[in-house]
Amino acid sequence: GLIPAGLEESLAALEREGRRAKFLYTIPTYQNPAGVTMTEERREEILAIAERHGLLVIEDDPYSMIAFDGTPPAPLRARAERGVIYLGTVSKIFAAGLRLGWVLAPPAVRDKLLLAIEASILCPSGLTQEATLRFLTEMEWRQQVKVFNTLYRDRRDALLTALGDYMPEGMTWTVPGGGLFIWATLPEGLDSKAMLPRALQERVAYVPGTGFYADGNGRREMRLNFSTQTAEVIREGVRRLAGVVASDIELRDTFAGGGA
């Protein structure tokens, strides 16, 4: 997750060069791709740093309602209303294809956002807005979110169990308290992007970690999603993926002189 000391150092370095960051974008709760959640202490530290440097914070919060292990910490916006723009969405609690959300922002920022939206898309789909309105006003949507959470928690547990049962030694992964993703790290010397074509041959897909870095890092990492498949399919998928990982380990050891 976001490390306060690293943020402070980066902002100070920019200021020494006569530059400044325009804003900080963060997903503090059940983050995509890692599934981790920023602690209460870190939230306070991040906000204090942002205030010292006059830094606007954009808090993207699409996953906080998808909670498995207790209630997540309060949003950053609840702690610093003036310095935080808060983004939410119905796509994770209603239907993924309905790309509609909301923004909490200071009036001056909100007005500029409205102009930007009008210039780019004119307005969101009327059908999407009508469907969302009826979902929120005529359906027991809070109960539906609880149903989703039970379903996703069972699928998360199935993925975690399968990873523990099948993955070779040296593989690690996060244990998210909510959201839709697990972040797995391959053993040393393996490359998730190079391995993807072999996984696809086994009809297993993931997102290589390099897709989440701007500097080319993340070669050992992969994002695993557990939201769309049944527990049985998840377990079989992990079994197949584990076979691909084991084959790459064997190949690595052979070229390193460790094979027979």
Automatic annotation (TrEMBL):
Its cofactor is pyridoxal 5'-phosphate. Keywords: Aminotransferase, Pyridoxal phosphate, Transferase. GO terms for molecular function: pyridoxal phosphate binding; transaminase activity. It comes from the Bacteria. GO terms for biological process: alpha-amino acid metabolic process. Residues 7-241 form the Aminotransferase class I/classII large domain. It holds the Pfam family Aminotran_1_2. Transmembrane segments: none annotated. PANTHER family: AMINOTRANSFERASE, KYNURENINE_ALPHA-AMINOADIPATE AMINOTRANSFERASE, MITOCHONDRIAL. This is PLP-dependent aminotransferase family protein. It comes from Glycomyces artemisiae. The lineage of its organism: Bacteria, Bacillati, Actinomycetota, Actinomycetes, Glycomycetales.
